[in-house]
């Protein structure tokens, strides 16, 4: 990569377009995609225009959303080039790109598509956001159950050129209802005169176009498939979803959950290219809300002013105690969110986990109390009992908060990742202050 960029820029500066095309022709698609991400907007366009139609389509798929938008904007001056690229892109990739654009821009780009591709794109965009329908592609090969193996291969050769994958061939009836799926291996090993109907067992896994994309992730994980058929409510085969599309969804879902856990709204995919004001808006909402939540911690402290004045050494251990509760809660929330996402626990399992969480947090609290007792024995021996008791209770309560919040959010049909670390920490802080100074008040008789 160190050599390709200078060479390309040199060829561009000398306007040696023929040599540039030949030079790029011998580079793999990923190398060209990385190059495009590193050069200026005008050079991105020059590189894309120097590629063949097939290579341009492949490279475009590998680009980030921001680079894709730069390419489309740059090609808008050449209607023919833009139309050709948009029509060449696979329907599912085109739909994913259109999802991130403003409606008026999508309308303009739709006019660049052929009537057939426009119909497909409008159909896919008509499915709910984050549904499997948005993810699927209608480019697949289906055969009839009454075909012979020889007829099946003839059909595949005729219609398989534009198929997303040929590893799986789908068997349908006269009404396009899915009967079964066959691996290409099954067909290759069968005799030419054998009938497709004799090869099928009517056992297949499918997705519903209206289901959420997260369900597709789970199904792919459970059945370890390269591709899955997508059916409508009547059982008609309308598309397929391939594993590479699912990998993209997994990345997006993981990134979204990561941002939510950090209390970040709609985080930009490329902070170097995003406007400062957008980045500010994405982060400020939750931070302001958490500021108001932490006001309760201050109010709790103010109510124990007499205790603090009489036993000043209590203040030394305050950050340690409330941080310990928040940290334990964040750990618990992280684990619960992960277990829920993987399907290892269900919403109805919450009550089964309370006893286990109490036992685990008790052991954690006692261990941490022993550690803080060692510190207190040198710094302030008179508060050892208070600090150790508060440590155990804070860790237990923080762990319970962290465990229960994901279940509560899931029950309310809110993404459990919203039970973010800052939210868990803020709630644990408020409770931690109340517990700590309430114990101190009772112990010292205030």
UniProtKB/TrEMBL annotation:
Q: Which GO terms describe its cellular component?
A: plasma membrane
Looking at the record's lineage, which domain of life comes first? Bacteria
Q: Where in the cell is it found?
A: Cell membrane; Membrane
Matching entries from InterPro entries are given as:
CBS_dom, CBS_dom_sf, Mg_transptr_MgtE_intracell_dom, MgtE_N_sf, MgtE_transporter, SLC41_membr_dom, SLC41_membr_dom_sf
**GO molecular function terms noted in the UniProt entry:** magnesium ion transmembrane transporter activity; metal ion binding
Q: Main site of residence?
A: membrane
Q: Mind telling me which CDD domains this protein's record contains?
A: CBS_pair_Mg_transporter
The cross-references to SMART domains, in alphabetical order and at most eight, read: CBS (SM00116), MgtE_N (SM00924)
Q: How does it sit in the membrane?
A: Multi-pass membrane protein
Q: Which residues cross the membrane?
A: 284-304, 358-378, 384-409, 421-439
Which keywords does this Swiss-Prot/TrEMBL entry list?
CBS domain, Cell membrane, Magnesium, Membrane, Metal-binding, Transmembrane, Transmembrane helix, Transport
Q: Which SUPFAM superfamilies match?
A: CBS-domain pair (SSF54631), MgtE membrane domain-like (SSF161093), MgtE N-terminal domain-like (SSF158791)
Domain (CBS) spans 136-199, 200-256
Which PANTHER family would you find in this protein's record? MAGNESIUM TRANSPORTER MGTE
What is its quaternary makeup?
Homodimer.
- What family does this belong to? Belongs to the SLC41A transporter family.
Q: Any idea what job this protein has?
A: Acts as a magnesium transporter.
Q: What is this protein called?
A: Magnesium transporter MgtE
Origin species? Gelidibacter salicanalis
Question: What phylogenetic lineage does the species belong to?
Answer: Bacteria, Pseudomonadati, Bacteroidota, Flavobacteriia, Flavobacteriales
């Amino acid at each position: 990569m160190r050599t390709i960029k200078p060479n390309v820029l040199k060829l561009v500066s000398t306007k040696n377009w023929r040599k540039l095309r030949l030079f790029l022709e011998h580079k793999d698609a990923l190398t060209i995609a990385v190059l495009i991400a590193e050069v200026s907007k005008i050079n991105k366009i020059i590189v894309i225009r120097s590629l063949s139609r097939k290579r341009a389509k492949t490279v475009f798929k590998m680009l980030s959303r921001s680079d894709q938008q730069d390419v489309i904007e740059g090609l808008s001056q050449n209607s023919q080039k833009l139309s050709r690229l948009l029509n060449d892109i696979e329907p599912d990739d085109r739909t994913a790109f259109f999802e991130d654009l403003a409606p008026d821009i999508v309308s303009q780009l739709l006019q660049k598509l052929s009537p057939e591709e426009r119909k497909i794109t409008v159909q896919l965009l008509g499915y709910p956001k984050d549904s499997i329908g948005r993810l699927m592609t209608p480019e697949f090969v289906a055969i009839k159950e009454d075909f012979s193996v020889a007829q099946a291969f003839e059909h595949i050769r005729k219609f398989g050129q534009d198929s997303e994958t040929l590893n799986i061939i789908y068997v349908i009836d006269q009404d396009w209802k899915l009967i079964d799926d066959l691996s290409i291996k099954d067909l290759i090993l069968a005799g030419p005169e054998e009938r497709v109907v004799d090869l099928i067992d009517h056992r297949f896994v499918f997705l519903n176009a209206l289901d959420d994309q997260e369900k597709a992730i789970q199904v792919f994980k459970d059945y370890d498939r390269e591709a899955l058929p997508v059916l409508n409510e009547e059982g008609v085969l309308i598309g397929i979803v391939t594993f590479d599309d699912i990998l993209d969804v997994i990345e997006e879902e993981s990134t979204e959950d990561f941002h939510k856990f950090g209390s970040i709204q709609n985080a930009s995919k490329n902070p170097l290219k995003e406007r400062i004001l957008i980045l500010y808006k994405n982060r400020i909402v939750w931070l302001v809300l958490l500021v108001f939540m932490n006001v309760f911690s201050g109010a709790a402290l103010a109510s124990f002013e007499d205790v603090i004045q009489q036993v000043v050494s209590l203040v030394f251990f305050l950050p340690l105690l409330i941080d310990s509760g928040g940290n334990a809660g964040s750990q618990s929330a992280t684990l619960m969110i992960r277990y829920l996402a993987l399907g290892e626990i269900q919403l109805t399992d919450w009550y089964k986990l309370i006893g286990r969480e109490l036992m685990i947090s008790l052991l954690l609290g006692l261990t941490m109390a022993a550690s803080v007792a060692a510190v207190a024995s040198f710094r302030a021996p008179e508060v050892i009992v208070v600090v150790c008791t508060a440590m155990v209770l804070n860790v237990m309560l923080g762990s319970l908060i962290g465990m229960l919040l994901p279940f509560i959010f899931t029950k309310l049909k809110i993404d459990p990742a919203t039970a973010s670390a800052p939210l868990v920490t803020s709630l644990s802080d408020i409770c931690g202050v109340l517990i700590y100074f309430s114990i101190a008040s009772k112990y010292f008789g205030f």
